[in-house]
Amino acid sequence: MSTARRPARPDRRPLVAIPARFAATTSALRYAAEVNARALAEAVWRAGGEPVGLHPHAPAGEADPDEVADRLAAFDAVLLPGGGDIAPRRYGHRHTHDSVYDVDDGQDGFDLAVARYALGAGMPLLAICRGLQVVNTVLGGTLHQDMGGPEREHRHLVHPVTLRPGSVLAAVAGAEKAEASCYHHQRVDRPGRGLAVTATAVDGTVEALELAPGAGWFVGVQWHPEDTAADDPVQQRLFDAHVRAARG
């Protein structure tokens, strides 16, 4: 398995690997597609990075770790984006809540392998919504499969989150509060090994996770910073910091 990554050059944009999301239909392409949100790619581009979609290859739900390592060796950073739910069996649950949706075994297998490699190789890693849940799962954490229905879930919601003083997130944001654009019905239950909670919502929902200092650049947020990054400097700074870390 290759773990060597090419050094970032000051005269080029750092390459940011973003696992694509499977889409059943897209009007422009007529058929099923692999996609990422335009707002996400634009936020990475504004930060000075080159966003590159990765084909999620995980036959029978398991990606080859050597293959993933070889593919990621060409990149400077990884961004795990939002998407559908992770199969509950991946974090040790025997039963699946009725609200769980868009589970794709291949998507899960690839995202988990990418997160595992990025963490092990010390690649700068930004994880958004589902991405945060993927990292939490890789590190042995668990999720609440459902937050309790429309009156409690965080869908189509912009609300304040409190950032922990001294965290990477607070330093990047330059603030102790941020307005977060959320779309999720699941949340972290038990944080994974080595993860610290660095932001919360008023209802106690875990809104951000980080690794201990010295364990590599990782920030995971439960909200979607790309939704408002074009107009909210606090959200754009998260992408800026990620790309700076990629320049290394």
TrEMBL record:
<dbReference type="InterPro" id="IPR044668">
    <property type="entry name" value="PuuD-like"/>
</dbReference>
<dbReference type="InterPro" id="IPR011697">
    <property type="entry name" value="Peptidase_C26"/>
</dbReference>
<protein>
    <submittedName>
        <fullName>Gamma-glutamyl-gamma-aminobutyrate hydrolase family protein</fullName>
    </submittedName>
</protein>
<dbReference type="GO" id="GO:0016787">
    <property type="term" value="F:hydrolase activity"/>
</dbReference>
<dbReference type="Pfam" id="PF07722">
    <property type="entry name" value="Peptidase_C26"/>
</dbReference>
<keyword id="KW-0378">Hydrolase</keyword>
<dbReference type="InterPro" id="IPR029062">
    <property type="entry name" value="Class_I_gatase-like"/>
</dbReference>
